[in-house]
UniProtKB/TrEMBL annotation:
Residues 1-262 form the Septin-type G domain. Keywords: GTP-binding, Nucleotide-binding. Pfam families: Septin. InterPro entries: G_SEPTIN_dom, P-loop_NTPase, Septin. It comes from Psilopogon haemacephalus (coppersmith barbet). This is SEP12 protein. It comes from the Eukaryota. SUPFAM superfamilies: P-loop containing nucleoside triphosphate hydrolases.
Length: 269
Protein backbone atom coordinates (compact mmCIF):
# COMPACT_ATOMS: atom_id res chain seq x y z
CA UNK A 1 0.00 0.00 0.00
CA UNK A 2 0.91 3.64 -0.35
CA UNK A 3 2.54 5.79 2.33
CA UNK A 4 0.49 6.91 5.30
CA UNK A 5 -1.97 3.99 5.41
CA UNK A 6 -0.53 2.55 8.63
CA UNK A 7 1.17 -0.60 7.26
CA UNK A 8 4.01 -0.65 9.78
CA UNK A 9 1.72 0.25 12.68
CA UNK A 10 -0.75 -2.46 11.69
CA UNK A 11 1.92 -5.16 11.63
CA UNK A 12 3.09 -4.09 15.08
CA UNK A 13 -0.53 -4.17 16.30
CA UNK A 14 -1.21 -7.68 15.00
CA UNK A 15 1.86 -9.21 16.59
CA UNK A 16 1.94 -6.92 19.63
CA UNK A 17 5.63 -6.33 18.98
CA UNK A 18 7.82 -3.87 17.11
CA UNK A 19 8.07 -6.23 14.15
CA UNK A 20 8.05 -3.60 11.43
CA UNK A 21 9.80 -0.27 11.29
CA UNK A 22 8.47 2.88 12.92
CA UNK A 23 5.99 4.91 10.98
CA UNK A 24 7.22 8.14 9.44
CA UNK A 25 6.09 11.09 11.58
CA UNK A 26 7.31 14.71 11.58
CA UNK A 27 10.00 15.24 14.18
CA UNK A 28 11.12 11.63 14.36
CA UNK A 29 14.75 10.93 13.69
CA UNK A 30 14.02 7.60 12.03
CA UNK A 31 11.99 8.07 8.87
CA UNK A 32 10.81 5.57 6.31
CA UNK A 33 11.99 6.74 2.88
CA UNK A 34 9.26 7.32 0.29
CA UNK A 35 10.47 4.66 -2.08
CA UNK A 36 9.44 1.24 -3.39
CA UNK A 37 12.62 -0.30 -1.99
CA UNK A 38 11.67 -3.42 -0.06
CA UNK A 39 12.78 -3.91 3.52
CA UNK A 40 12.56 -7.20 5.47
CA UNK A 41 12.56 -7.62 9.23
CA UNK A 42 12.77 -11.04 10.91
CA UNK A 43 11.33 -11.41 14.39
CA UNK A 44 10.76 -14.38 16.72
CA UNK A 45 7.30 -14.22 18.28
CA UNK A 46 5.78 -16.50 20.91
CA UNK A 47 2.18 -17.74 20.83
CA UNK A 48 0.97 -19.91 23.74
CA UNK A 49 4.49 -21.12 24.45
CA UNK A 50 5.26 -21.90 20.80
CA UNK A 51 7.98 -19.82 19.14
CA UNK A 52 7.69 -18.90 15.49
CA UNK A 53 10.07 -17.01 13.23
CA UNK A 54 8.22 -14.34 11.29
CA UNK A 55 9.63 -12.26 8.45
CA UNK A 56 7.77 -9.12 7.43
CA UNK A 57 8.64 -7.44 4.16
CA UNK A 58 7.57 -3.82 4.04
CA UNK A 59 6.99 -1.94 0.78
CA UNK A 60 7.00 1.71 1.85
CA UNK A 61 5.91 4.35 -0.61
CA UNK A 62 4.33 2.08 -3.22
CA UNK A 63 2.17 4.06 -5.65
CA UNK A 64 3.36 7.47 -4.40
CA UNK A 65 5.03 8.54 -7.63
CA UNK A 66 3.44 10.74 -10.30
CA UNK A 67 4.15 8.01 -12.86
CA UNK A 68 3.33 4.61 -11.37
CA UNK A 69 3.88 2.55 -14.52
CA UNK A 70 5.20 -0.90 -13.59
CA UNK A 71 5.57 0.12 -9.93
CA UNK A 72 4.72 -3.48 -9.03
CA UNK A 73 7.88 -4.82 -10.69
CA UNK A 74 10.18 -4.65 -7.60
CA UNK A 75 7.61 -6.49 -5.46
CA UNK A 76 6.86 -9.20 -8.03
CA UNK A 77 10.61 -9.59 -8.64
CA UNK A 78 11.22 -10.03 -4.91
CA UNK A 79 8.51 -12.72 -4.57
CA UNK A 80 9.86 -14.64 -7.57
CA UNK A 81 13.42 -14.36 -6.25
CA UNK A 82 12.35 -16.19 -3.09
CA UNK A 83 10.81 -18.98 -5.20
CA UNK A 84 14.03 -19.16 -7.21
CA UNK A 85 16.13 -19.38 -4.06
CA UNK A 86 13.99 -22.27 -2.76
CA UNK A 87 14.09 -24.02 -6.15
CA UNK A 88 17.90 -23.84 -6.33
CA UNK A 89 18.16 -25.54 -2.92
CA UNK A 90 15.55 -28.14 -3.86
CA UNK A 91 17.26 -29.34 -7.05
CA UNK A 92 20.69 -29.84 -5.47
CA UNK A 93 21.90 -33.45 -5.55
CA UNK A 94 22.76 -33.19 -1.86
CA UNK A 95 20.17 -30.93 -0.33
CA UNK A 96 19.51 -29.82 3.22
CA UNK A 97 17.07 -31.82 5.29
CA UNK A 98 15.11 -28.61 5.88
CA UNK A 99 15.36 -26.03 3.13
CA UNK A 100 15.42 -22.44 4.47
CA UNK A 101 12.05 -21.03 3.44
CA UNK A 102 12.04 -17.32 2.59
CA UNK A 103 9.00 -17.60 0.30
CA UNK A 104 6.26 -15.03 0.76
CA UNK A 105 3.19 -16.84 2.12
CA UNK A 106 0.82 -13.89 2.23
CA UNK A 107 0.54 -10.32 1.01
CA UNK A 108 -1.67 -7.91 2.96
CA UNK A 109 -2.79 -5.26 0.48
CA UNK A 110 -3.80 -1.92 2.06
CA UNK A 111 -6.67 -0.12 0.29
CA UNK A 112 -7.14 3.62 0.99
CA UNK A 113 -10.42 4.28 2.90
CA UNK A 114 -12.00 6.36 0.13
CA UNK A 115 -15.45 4.80 0.46
CA UNK A 116 -15.80 4.69 -3.33
CA UNK A 117 -14.34 2.03 -5.68
CA UNK A 118 -10.93 0.42 -6.06
CA UNK A 119 -8.49 2.54 -8.03
CA UNK A 120 -7.23 1.17 -11.39
CA UNK A 121 -3.78 0.97 -9.76
CA UNK A 122 -5.11 -1.24 -6.95
CA UNK A 123 -6.97 -3.50 -9.38
CA UNK A 124 -3.97 -3.99 -11.66
CA UNK A 125 -1.59 -4.58 -8.78
CA UNK A 126 -3.84 -7.14 -7.06
CA UNK A 127 -4.50 -8.90 -10.37
CA UNK A 128 -0.76 -9.39 -10.91
CA UNK A 129 -0.03 -10.30 -7.30
CA UNK A 130 -2.85 -12.86 -7.03
CA UNK A 131 -1.16 -14.94 -9.72
CA UNK A 132 1.94 -15.53 -7.58
CA UNK A 133 0.99 -15.02 -3.91
CA UNK A 134 -1.93 -15.18 -1.47
CA UNK A 135 -3.43 -11.67 -1.43
CA UNK A 136 -5.46 -10.42 1.54
CA UNK A 137 -7.02 -6.99 0.87
CA UNK A 138 -7.72 -4.76 3.88
CA UNK A 139 -9.32 -1.34 4.27
CA UNK A 140 -6.72 0.82 5.99
CA UNK A 141 -7.70 3.21 8.82
CA UNK A 142 -11.23 1.84 8.77
CA UNK A 143 -12.27 4.03 11.72
CA UNK A 144 -12.35 7.00 9.33
CA UNK A 145 -15.51 5.51 7.75
CA UNK A 146 -18.93 5.22 9.36
CA UNK A 147 -20.23 1.66 9.74
CA UNK A 148 -22.64 2.27 6.84
CA UNK A 149 -19.86 3.65 4.63
CA UNK A 150 -17.64 0.73 5.54
CA UNK A 151 -20.29 -1.86 4.64
CA UNK A 152 -20.98 -0.17 1.29
CA UNK A 153 -17.26 0.17 0.52
CA UNK A 154 -16.76 -3.56 1.21
CA UNK A 155 -19.64 -4.40 -1.13
CA UNK A 156 -18.13 -2.27 -3.91
CA UNK A 157 -14.67 -3.79 -3.46
CA UNK A 158 -16.12 -7.32 -3.58
CA UNK A 159 -17.95 -6.37 -6.76
CA UNK A 160 -14.74 -4.95 -8.27
CA UNK A 161 -12.83 -8.14 -7.44
CA UNK A 162 -15.52 -10.33 -9.06
CA UNK A 163 -15.80 -8.12 -12.16
CA UNK A 164 -12.03 -8.23 -12.75
CA UNK A 165 -11.70 -11.94 -11.81
CA UNK A 166 -9.17 -11.26 -9.05
CA UNK A 167 -8.92 -14.30 -6.79
CA UNK A 168 -7.90 -13.22 -3.29
CA UNK A 169 -7.33 -15.45 -0.26
CA UNK A 170 -9.10 -17.74 0.63
CA UNK A 171 -9.52 -18.82 -3.00
CA UNK A 172 -12.68 -20.74 -3.99
CA UNK A 173 -10.62 -23.23 -6.02
CA UNK A 174 -8.92 -24.70 -2.95
CA UNK A 175 -11.90 -25.44 -0.70
CA UNK A 176 -11.37 -29.11 0.13
CA UNK A 177 -14.73 -30.10 1.62
CA UNK A 178 -18.17 -28.63 2.51
CA UNK A 179 -17.11 -27.81 6.08
CA UNK A 180 -14.03 -25.94 4.91
CA UNK A 181 -16.06 -24.17 2.21
CA UNK A 182 -18.56 -23.00 4.81
CA UNK A 183 -15.77 -21.62 7.01
CA UNK A 184 -14.07 -19.90 4.09
CA UNK A 185 -17.37 -18.44 2.87
CA UNK A 186 -17.78 -16.73 6.25
CA UNK A 187 -14.29 -15.28 5.87
CA UNK A 188 -14.93 -14.22 2.26
CA UNK A 189 -18.01 -12.27 3.38
CA UNK A 190 -15.72 -10.07 5.51
CA UNK A 191 -13.18 -9.37 2.76
CA UNK A 192 -11.72 -6.80 2.61
CA UNK A 193 -11.03 -6.82 6.33
CA UNK A 194 -11.43 -3.46 8.05
CA UNK A 195 -8.28 -2.73 10.08
CA UNK A 196 -7.23 -0.12 12.60
CA UNK A 197 -3.58 -0.02 13.60
CA UNK A 198 -2.45 1.30 16.96
CA UNK A 199 0.85 1.09 18.81
CA UNK A 200 -0.23 2.98 21.95
CA UNK A 201 -1.68 1.19 25.00
CA UNK A 202 -4.63 2.63 26.90
CA UNK A 203 -6.55 1.66 30.05
CA UNK A 204 -10.05 0.30 29.25
CA UNK A 205 -12.18 -1.28 32.00
CA UNK A 206 -9.08 -1.98 34.06
CA UNK A 207 -7.22 -3.63 31.16
CA UNK A 208 -4.38 -2.36 28.96
CA UNK A 209 -5.38 -2.48 25.30
CA UNK A 210 -3.89 -1.33 22.02
CA UNK A 211 -6.01 1.40 20.52
CA UNK A 212 -6.38 4.91 19.23
CA UNK A 213 -7.59 7.65 21.57
CA UNK A 214 -10.21 10.03 20.19
CA UNK A 215 -12.36 12.68 21.84
CA UNK A 216 -15.28 10.23 21.98
CA UNK A 217 -13.31 7.34 23.49
CA UNK A 218 -10.79 4.59 22.72
CA UNK A 219 -11.01 2.71 19.42
CA UNK A 220 -9.52 -0.72 20.12
CA UNK A 221 -7.53 -2.28 17.32
CA UNK A 222 -9.51 -5.54 17.28
CA UNK A 223 -12.55 -5.53 19.55
CA UNK A 224 -14.61 -2.35 19.27
CA UNK A 225 -17.33 -2.05 16.56
CA UNK A 226 -15.48 0.88 15.00
CA UNK A 227 -12.16 -0.91 15.35
CA UNK A 228 -10.46 -3.59 13.31
CA UNK A 229 -11.68 -7.08 12.46
CA UNK A 230 -9.54 -10.04 13.60
CA UNK A 231 -7.94 -11.76 10.63
CA UNK A 232 -7.97 -15.59 10.50
CA UNK A 233 -4.35 -16.20 9.56
CA UNK A 234 -2.45 -14.97 12.59
CA UNK A 235 -0.06 -17.17 14.61
CA UNK A 236 -2.00 -19.96 16.30
CA UNK A 237 -4.93 -19.77 13.88
CA UNK A 238 -6.19 -22.51 11.58
CA UNK A 239 -5.45 -20.64 8.36
CA UNK A 240 -1.78 -19.92 8.98
CA UNK A 241 -0.77 -23.38 7.75
CA UNK A 242 -3.28 -23.08 4.90
CA UNK A 243 -1.47 -20.02 3.59
CA UNK A 244 1.80 -21.95 3.59
CA UNK A 245 0.23 -25.00 1.93
CA UNK A 246 -1.28 -22.96 -0.91
CA UNK A 247 2.00 -21.15 -1.40
CA UNK A 248 3.90 -24.44 -1.68
CA UNK A 249 1.37 -26.53 -3.63
CA UNK A 250 0.02 -23.86 -5.97
CA UNK A 251 2.08 -20.69 -6.36
CA UNK A 252 5.53 -22.23 -5.90
CA UNK A 253 4.60 -25.32 -7.92
CA UNK A 254 3.48 -23.10 -10.79
CA UNK A 255 6.80 -21.23 -10.66
CA UNK A 256 8.80 -24.49 -10.41
CA UNK A 257 7.09 -26.06 -13.44
CA UNK A 258 7.61 -22.93 -15.51
CA UNK A 259 11.31 -22.68 -14.60
CA UNK A 260 12.00 -26.38 -15.25
CA UNK A 261 10.23 -26.15 -18.62
CA UNK A 262 12.42 -23.18 -19.50
CA UNK A 263 15.62 -25.02 -18.57
CA UNK A 264 14.59 -28.13 -20.57
CA UNK A 265 13.58 -26.19 -23.68
CA UNK A 266 16.05 -26.81 -26.55
CA UNK A 267 17.96 -23.73 -27.64
CA UNK A 268 17.04 -22.46 -31.09
CA UNK A 269 19.82 -21.84 -33.59
Amino acid sequence: GQSGLGKSTMVNTLFKSKVSRKASQPGQQERIPRTVQLHSVTHVIEEKGVKMKLTVTDTPGFGDQINNDNCWDPIIKYINEQYERYLREEILITRKRKIPDTRVHGCVYFVPPTGHWLRPLDLEFMRRLAEIVNVVPVIAKADTLTLEERAEFKRRIQEDLRTHAISVYPQHDFDQDPEERELNDRIREKIPFAVVGADQEHQVNGKRVLGRKTKWGIIEGERSPRGGEPMPFLPGSSHLQDLKDITHNVHYESYRVRRLNESNRPALG
